[in-house]
């Protein structure tokens, strides 16, 4: 291999074993996640409870990511992938036992389980993002990120349908135990995956100093810093509209619950197609160009959805626009992640990703807070118009800012030298 730091033999078999584990453990975890949300919906029928559940699922990523990064850089990666799975499985066992004994789940206990699951993901996400560059050659990194995106999109497509089927035929306590099955599968596979470790493993962690280091590293690369801020602004604009998809289908278009589910699914199908394109064709000399095209397409499809007529024809157009937007979405997320992974040495990547994930996640809850009242005041379709226009403005900023526009060309030149 030309890549000096890359030394794993049989890397392709190794990474596909890892991706298989991510798919199998991910789908069981998502089935349980959907089941919990459906349970809360069925038992409470409360929008407040559902909003609280969504917020609890997002807060750990926002609050803990800057401080998780230092541990990602200095802790055994297998431990960081395995321990959260085991803890989530133990919580599932406790929740299932309570369900078997009482035939009910206290809301507070469900909320605690959601928080613990979210904390586990907060540790696992930057760990996965930081180990990929150490497991594959540099020239394959974008493709492998695309294939990881394919795995995640496939989970989003399969889990809701499979979860709904299982939710209808087996008891909730039994369904929750799928988390244990997923943990067993995930941990077993990870034990056989070869993951290189950083030289600074087991060094003392200085949480605040290391978090500041991650922020300074991100800000030092102006082009990357600006596009991260644009990603946060994009999330702020996009999240309110995304949270209103069911309301758009059922209220604006007068559709059914089944049609709302189809709209959610078609976006994931589109994302799977986009991830597949990246996964097999993903070698661009300048990845900022497809990122800009992605923002353009997502802005147009989202904004145009707000102008559709309130009839069945409008709904069919909504369906088509969501499919196109779904195809475009992975090009922003996946290519940006590959750029970040190649911009920093592996021993610093966890701290940088911790800051970046926190910034990107922070905008989501802010948008969600205003989504409901704003939709009631101006109409749910106008949220889509705002999201579309805001996304296009973010894209124009990236295009007009030379540090951001030329960042990847300069990066790839440096990587070749």
Automatic annotation (TrEMBL):
Membrane topology summary: Multi-pass membrane protein
Keywords: Cell membrane, Membrane, Transmembrane, Transmembrane helix, Transport
One of the record's GO molecular function terms: transmembrane transporter activity
Principal subcellular localization: membrane
Domain Major facilitator superfamily (MFS) profile: 14-406
Transmembrane segments: 15-40, 46-67, 79-101, 107-132, 153-170, 176-195, 224-245, 265-284, 291-309, 315-340, 352-371, 383-403
Any Gene Ontology CC annotation: plasma membrane
Record's subcellular location: Cell membrane
Entries under Gene3D superfamilies matching the protein: MFS general substrate transporter like domains
PANTHER family the record matches: BACILYSIN EXPORTER BACE-RELATED, MACROLIDE-EFFLUX PROTEIN
Protein name (record): Major facilitator superfamily protein
The organism of origin for this protein: Companilactobacillus nantensis DSM 16982
């Amino acid at each position: 291999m030309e890549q000096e730091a890359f030394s794993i033999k049989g890397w392709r078999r190794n990474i596909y074993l890892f991706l298989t584990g991510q798919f199998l453990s991910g789908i069981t975890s998502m089935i349980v996640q959907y089941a919990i949300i459906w349970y809360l919906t069925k038992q409470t029928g409360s929008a407040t409870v559902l909003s609280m559940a969504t917020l609890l699922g997002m807060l750990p990523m926002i609050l803990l990511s800057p401080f998780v990064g230092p541990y990602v850089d200095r802790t055994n990666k297998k431990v960081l992938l395995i321990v959260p799975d085991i803890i989530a499985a133990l919580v599932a066992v406790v929740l299932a036992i309570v369900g078997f004994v009482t035939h009910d789940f206290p809301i507070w206990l469900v909320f605690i389980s959601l928080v613990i699951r979210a904390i586990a993901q907060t540790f696992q996400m930057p760990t996965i993002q930081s180990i990929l560059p150490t497991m594959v050659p540099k020239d394959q990194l974008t493709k492998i990120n695309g294939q990881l995106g394919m795995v995640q999109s496939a989970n989003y497509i399969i889990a809701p349908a499979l979860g709904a089927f299982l939710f209808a035929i087996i008891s909730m306590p039994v369904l929750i135990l799928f988390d244990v099955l997923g943990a067993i599968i995930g941990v077993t596979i990870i034990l056989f995956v070869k993951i290189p470790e950083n030289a600074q493993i087991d060094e003392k962690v200085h949480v605040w100093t290391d978090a500041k280091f991650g922020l300074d590293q991100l800000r030092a690369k102006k082009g990357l810093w600006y596009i991260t801020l644009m990603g946060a602004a994009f999330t702020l604009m996009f999240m309110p509209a995304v949270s209103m998809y069911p309301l758009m289908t059922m209220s604006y278009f007068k559709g059914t619950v089944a049609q709302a589910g189809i709209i959610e699914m078609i976006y994931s199908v589109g994302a799977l197609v986009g991830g597949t394109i990246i996964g097999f064709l993903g070698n661009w000399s300048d990845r900022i160009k497809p990122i800009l095209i992605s923002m353009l397409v997502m802005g147009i499809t989202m904004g145009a959805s707000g102008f559709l007529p309130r009839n069945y024809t409008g709904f069919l157009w909504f369906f088509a626009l969501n499919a196109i937007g779904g195809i475009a979405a992975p090009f922003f997320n996946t290519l940006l992640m590959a750029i970040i992974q190649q911009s920093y040495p592996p021993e610093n990547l966890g701290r940088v990703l911790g800051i970046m994930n926190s910034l990107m996640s922070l905008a989501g809850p802010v948008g969600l807070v205003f989504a409901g009242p704003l939709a009631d005041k101006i109409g749910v379709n106008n949220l889509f118009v705002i999201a579309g226009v805001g996304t296009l403005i973010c894209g124009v900023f990236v295009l007009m800012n030379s540090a951001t526009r030329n960042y990847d060309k300069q990066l790839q030149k440096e990587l070749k030298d």
